[in-house]
């Protein structure tokens, strides 16, 4: 049996918080900061581009298609986005790495751009106001 029967067995992506990238300490002291590791397709010559160093062993992709955007020019409400990882970088947040499964499957989130379409598609509304200075 081959050591790496599929491309994804040899090539992988790691979605880590920057603290998890500290040599030795990231793996041993800050393992909570190492979030997701999964097989990845692609190479430097494909649409879903990834890049990696030459190695006989497993290869971590250090570059890739991490933000995807499609816009259908005939309708500004037909815009689609996706981020590798998720909405924010806060550890243990529910939106930190929530888009990884969609990224793996090549899915997108529809994001309309007309104000009336946004209100219809996203009914939750947050209004952020600066805190009044204390006297």
Protein described:
It is a single chain. The chain is α+β, with helices and mostly antiparallel strands. It contains four helices and eight strands; from the N terminus they run αβαββββββαβα. Strands 2-1-4 form a three-stranded mixed beta sheet. It has a three-stranded antiparallel beta sheet with strand order 6-7-8. A two-stranded antiparallel sheet has the order 3-5. The longest helix has 7 residues, at 115-121. It is flat and about 60 Å long.
Please give a quick description of this structure.
By secondary structure, the protein is an alpha+beta fold.
Structural class: alpha+beta
Helix share bin: 10-25%
Beta-strand content estimate: 15-25%
- Measured distance between first and last alpha carbons: 73 Å
Radius of gyration: 19 Å
Unreliable runs: none
Q: What is the number of helices?
A: 4
Order of helices and strands: HEHEEEEEEHEH
| Quaternary class | single chain
Tag the structure with descriptive keywords.
135 residues, alpha+beta, 3-stranded mixed β-sheet, 3-stranded antiparallel β-sheet, 16% helix, flat
How would the blueprint of this fold be written?
Layout: H1 7-10, E1 11-16, H2 25-28, E2 34-39, E3 50-51, E4 59-60, E5 63-64, E6 67-71, E7 79-83, H3 100-105, E8 109-110, H4 115-121
Parallel strand pairs: 1-4
Antiparallel strand pairs: 1-2, 3-5, 6-7, 7-8
